[in-house]
Design brief:
With about 240 residues, this protein is mainly α. The protein has 12 helices and 4 strands, in the order αββαββαααααααααα.
């Protein structure tokens, strides 16, 4: 057993960076070594919940390099064209593959993925609904990168997805626990520039604003259970339907 006197003495040990006594041994915090004599305790690492995370490797880039996607860059290098009739595509196969590209930050992968997604959501109609379970993990992985541009583009895709067909908003409600928690970290992170101008708002790139727009869209299209599920995960959210 460690006496009270020895424990109080341990609290007075110098931290790294402070003048060290001769023979002071650096040990990790919250270990039995921290109670030993002649040691200096290293403080625990700082937790940065908003730190950007490197995106996990996806199959999108591999599939693109193999030429598995029926799209190509036009000769002018500015537009992307489809090499097959988009209405006849196998959505179960291609739509999840394109959604995996949401985590991409480099072109042409980023441009191909985003245009492919928006085009398929525009023309997919009833073929989109059965693919919902396959789209959740790519959306979650993209949001968990915590990269501003990736999150903004993913949230816009999520808004388009909800509006792309009947009952899609209701079908997403059971998956809120997977895709919404990370939004709670950034919902109130508006830029405070004082008397200056926040140009991200003018460009539609303000993450906090896009998060609020997305939550309102999910509530409008998610049915009667949408608000209570959003409120459970993001307590600061206020209904846009009840007010």
């Amino acid at each position: 057993m460690v006496s009270g006197k020895e424990f109080r003495a341990s609290l007075r040990r110098p931290l790294p960076g402070a003048p060290k006594h001769k023979g002071c041994r650096v040990v990790p915090a919250f270990t039995i070594q921290a109670l030993q004599k002649g040691t200096c305790v290293v403080p625990p690492p700082r937790c940065n919940a908003l730190k950007e995370q490197p995106p996990k490797p996806t199959n999108f880039r591999t599939n693109y390099k193999r030429g598995d996607f029926p799209i190509a860059l036009e000769a002018n290098g500015k537009r992307i064209s489809w090499k097959a009739d988009i209405n006849k595509l196998d959505y179960h196969h291609y739509l999840p593959m394109f959604f995996e590209g949401l985590s991409e930050t480099e072109n042409p992968y980023k441009a191909f993925a985003q245009q492919g997604i928006h085009d398929m959501l525009t023309y997919g109609g009833p073929k989109i609904f059965p693919c919902i379970p396959q789209l959740i993990i790519p959306i979650k992985n993209a949001l968990n990168t915590k990269k501003k541009l990736v999150m903004c583009s993913t949230l816009r895709v999520l808004q388009h997805l909800v509006k792309s067909g009947d009952m899609i908003g209701e079908a997403l409600v059971p998956y809120y626990r997977q895709i919404l928690p990370v939004l709670n970290l950034f919902k109130e992170k508006n830029v405070n520039c004082g008397d200056g101008i926040d140009y991200s708002q003018m460009k539609g790139e303000n993450l906090a604003d896009i998060i609020n727009e997305t939550l309102e869209t999910l509530e409008r299209y998610g049915g009667e259970d949408a608000f209570i599920n959003i409120k459970y995960l993001i307590p600061t959210y206020e209904s846009c339907m009840m007010n």
